[in-house]
Amino acid sequence: MRRDLFDEEHLLFRETVSEFLAREVIPRHGQWEKDGIVPREVWKKAGELGMFGFSVPQEYGGAGITDFRYNTVIVEEIIRAGATGLGFGLHNDIMAPYLVDLTDDEQKRRWLPGFVSGELITAIAMTEPGAGSDLQGIRTTAIREGDHYVVNGQKTFITNGINSDLVVVVAKTDPAAGARGTTLLVVERGMTGFTRGRNLEKVGMHAQDTAELFFENVRVPVANRLGDEDGQGFIQLMNNLPQERLSIAVAAVAAAEAALETTIEYCRVRKAFGKSIGRFQNTRFLLAELSTEVEIARHYLDKCVLALNAGELTAVDAAKAKWWTTELQNKVIDRCVQLHGGYGYMLEYPVAKAWLDSRVQTIYGGTTEIMKEIIGRSFDF
Ligand SMILES: Cc1cc2nc3c(=O)[nH]c(=O)nc-3n(C[C@H](O)[C@H](O)[C@H](O)COP(=O)(O)OP(=O)(O)OC[C@H]3O[C@@H](n4cnc5c(N)ncnc54)[C@H](O)[C@@H]3O)c2cc1C
């Protein structure tokens, strides 16, 4: 079915992004996978092309456009290129709402121009060694002392953890108050007592820097708090998580589509028993099932993007999109590996890398189980 999500300007923008990836990223991504990180220069080059911060007001260097279809284009093109090292989705889709909607004018002046130019790379630090799904169980504290908070604690699995300049840290300002005592603070590169641990060795997404972060008596000015008062952090997180989950779902469907495309082509050219493997009924039925499921997912997802633009995407809508599309992505890519036979297990084949890169999708941004909890709770039993 015809996809009618985009207008002419989105399609033109897609060409810009695709050319950028072909020129600056694809030829180097293999090396970055070995390095475990992408160089900061590529962020600046992307910033020059206007790839960051659509929703940032023009006075701070952005486009002043709140339209998630642009974010969608970027994520889709990155995934199609297999450029999973670029943490642009996290920067654009996840961090922009925190830095645009929750900041005061002074914070906007300090952070948004660098956010747009790619000079300030961002991260969000919620997860701790002892608390991931159970976010209320975090133990990092931020205790107020005059004009500062003193932050102590440890975070792990933080995307852009090594490259980041601004880290939104989820901390307890009132440890006795549970979720109501949670506050978001922006910790900046170079603050005394803020250190980075290992760049973690992952199953896939090898060019993405995912790190541990440590905070030891870090004095963070009150001027770096997001929002007007203490204790709003949990609500701020809950408001922004649907957009984060939608971004992950966009990546999921794009990855499934890309894997299917390359697999159908492979099934055309690979021969066994004197004919293309696509001529076996099992292959055709399997590809028929997968392409049906992916197309149905695509249409639900596109509707979610429009709902987000209209301010109507609910936490339940986003949870459905996230768990369904990421589980589908894993199923589709796993079956595509099978159809490649032994070549599907060789990293020189894109489908093998896609298989490794996709596994985390059902885990981060809220696991499949937590998504089902969110949906299940809506029935109000
Ligand atoms: C590559 C990568 C990048 C990441 N990037 C970031 C980042 O940038 N920032 C950040 O803050 N975090 C990040 N994370 C962390 C990620 O969000 C967490 O790993 C995830 O939320 C799960 O938390 P956990 O690992 O503590 O697992 P746990 O919460 O310990 O879960 C373990 C298992 O128990 C299940 N479970 C837990 N609670 C329930 C329940 N109530 N009902 C049923 N089952 C349940 C889970 O579904 C899971 O299967 C990243 C993780 C990875 C792997």
Please outline the helices and strands.
Layout: H1 8-35, H2 40-48, H3 68-80, H4 88-101, H5 105-117, E1 122-125, E2 141-145, E3 148-159, E4 166-172, E5 182-188, E6 194-199, E7 210-221, H6 233-269, E8 271-272, E9 275-276, H7 281-309, H8 315-339, H9 350-358, H10 368-377
Parallel strand pairs: 1-4
Antiparallel strand pairs: 2-3, 3-7, 4-5, 6-7, 8-9
Helix pairs in contact: 1-3, 3-4, 3-6, 4-5, 4-6, 6-7, 6-8, 6-9, 7-8, 8-9, 8-10
Bound molecules: flavin-adenine dinucleotide.
Flavin-adenine dinucleotide binds at residues 123-127, 132-134, 157-159, 202, 210, 360, 363-367, 369-370, 373.
Task: Summarize the entry for a quick read.
By secondary structure, this protein is an alpha+beta fold.
Which structural traits does this protein have?
9 strands, alpha+beta, three-stranded mixed sheet, four-stranded antiparallel sheet, single chain, binds flavin-adenine dinucleotide
